[in-house]
Amino acid sequence: MITITLLSIVATVSFSILYQIPKKAIIPVGILGMVSWLFYAAAMHYGTNPVVASFVASIVVSLLSEAFARTLRMPVAIFAVPGIVVLLPGMTAYAAMKAFVVHEYLVGISMATETALVAGALASGIAISGVLAKSIWRKRHDISPIHK
Amino acid sequence: MKEEEILLLCMRAGALLLQYGGETSRVEQTIRHLAIGAGMDSHQIQSFVTPTGIFVSMSTPNGSITKLHRMEGQTTLNLDKVSAINDLSRRFERQRCNIEDALQELDRIEKAAPLYSAWVCRLAAFISSGSFTLFFGGHGIDFISGGIAGLLSELVMEWLSDYVPGFLAVLLASLAASLLGATISVVTKSTTEGAIVIGAVIPLLPGMSVTNSIRDLLAGDLLSGVARGAEALFISGAIAVAVALALDLSAHFY
User: Fold this and answer.
1) For A37-61, what is each residue's pLDDT tens digit?
2) pTM for the model
3) Are residues B98 and B216 in the same domain?
4) Tens digit of each residue's pLDDT (9 = 90 or more) over B145-194
5) What is the layout of strands, in order, in the sheet containing B45-50?
6) Are the Cβ atoms of B243 and A123 closer than 8 angstroms?
7) Which among B111, B142, B168 is the end of a domain?
8) Which of A26, A118, B99, B200 is most buried, judged by most C-beta within 10 A?
9) Residue B209 C-alpha, separation from nearest chain A C-alpha, in angstroms
10) Residues of the domain holding B19
């Protein structure tokens, strides 16, 4: 468990370097990778299915990314993209492709559907927290008159 | 003429932001910040930004002037530079610098070397693919197998991205990486071939396009949101096809 948590930090940070993120953002990105994996693991531990667990983790991570982006004054994508990468349904997508290759189309379709559902859950997590963050931080964000 | 200069500044900043991977709503916002910083009224400037071109129109006492910039070449993701241009536009809006300074600063940002050199990026690709392999259930030595396959996909992307369109480069890179991953897993008698292949292709996933697409759609930028979303779908489809091809090929050979 501890090894996997450490791995989630290393994987997230080294992934984010490929996106050339600013040096100040590296520690927050590591924290986000860990948080997203821990929330996913906790939700799975309480017996939710992967779609719900991904959704919960995605909302938490995207809200945290918005908070980091506002306190450090950087674009949200710097935090949101690497933060969510450990949640991607890689193994399910792989299982789907593997099933298609050996002509087990029923297994393939069910795996592909799960992949699509998880990806949709991640995307809606980003969308919902984007809207939430806008309503939470509206007063502080709209100091300048242009946003009216 | 002052208006021409303001327009030039807006165009340069917008084009650079778009090229380094900023979302279109951010580009429009930045253009507005810059124009307001230069003393214009917010209704005097209108911009329309799509992933392939920028239109800015400005009404001045001497009539209105319009400029169009067609985006050419591949986008090179560089969030550090996106952040720097973003900062510059905020500083300019608060009138901490004048137009000449801002233009010089843009030149400096454009010419600056990437924050992480090519070698650091290759090392990062190796570590990232290796740790994703372990993360998805690989054991011990699979870290190196996944890392090598991930390194190959990074090298192929570096080599091809100048010549071929984005999703074709991703298709070829993920094909090469998953073939190598499958071969290595046979050689090392690994039972977790899947983890190695997935670890190798994960850095190619279009995370940036998906996030930008969602943010653009939320900002009401339907055109760019749909365009970016389609790009993301094409790229994920290309990866899926490449992995399926590699699996089929390796099943025939081994």
Assistant:
1) 999 999 999 988 999 999 999 999 9
2) 0.88
3) no
4) 999 999 999 999 989 888 888 788 999 999 999 999 999 988 888 888 88
5) B45-50, B53-60, B63-70
6) no
7) B111
8) B200
9) 10
10) 2-111
